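User: Round two. Same drill as before: sequence, then structure, for each protein.

Assistant: Same drill it is. First protein:
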Amino acid sequence: MDQLLKRKLKLLVQSKEWEAIYPFQAYIVEQWNKMPLVADTEYETIKNAISRQAKVDGLSEFIENIERIALDVN
């Protein structure tokens, strides 16, 4: 990743508008949680639950990585 991109990410994360990302994240997770998990088979139900959790974890990791890289936190 080049320094220009890191600087842009740092400006983004340090801006007051960045705080909007957390309510947006909560909204997206809420929408995913409203989707039904129960399917025709136990396998499909488990698959749906794992898929939902993977989405939630992935979104959190994405935001955390932006912040970590932008703020040079190792």
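Second protein:
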Amino acid sequence: MDDEDLMSHLEEFHPGDLKMKFLVEPGRAERRLRNPREWRTYHRTLHRIHPKSYFHSHEEDELEAKPLNFHEKQEEVWVVEQFNPARGGDTVVGIAVSEEGGSQLPGLDHSKPFSKTKSILYRPALAPIYGGPTLLEALWSEMDRLMEGLMTQTDAEDGGDRYRAAELAWVLAIVTNAYAPSVDAIRAEAVARWNAVQS
């Protein structure tokens, strides 16, 4: 739906959510949304958070119907359990992101047997909530842009893109692995991403 349809829809079907009217700006013949993406995100979020509160649906909602976990990121984890005599049974010692890491959890008594069970952890993605990329996606998008200019020698006129890329690589290294940041790993991934696009 276009901007006018969305404004009319919000006024007619969401008066309890939105206590305002959309007005025509001075000097204009029609109403417009200054931030249309944010308004559409707001509308979609209303329906997602309160699916049973409205007696109407939208064609795009039906066309884009996805499973409930569509907006979640799946990650394999290992749940480590060990017998705890004080509790009279197995208790969870912790959760590791790798099978090897399950043997290194603090609080694990290595003198006693323990079990590791593979499971799936669902992490919510922020993009559908805020209507844009996550922080990590936005950082990589900027790195991809800088790499394109550097690899094709069409970087910024001030010649500063290589410095911007170096600083951004440090930021990405910290964001992706705060305990052992590796700028070299980020550089290698940036080149691999650029090569993947070319092929």
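Residues 72-124 form one domain.

User: Perfect.
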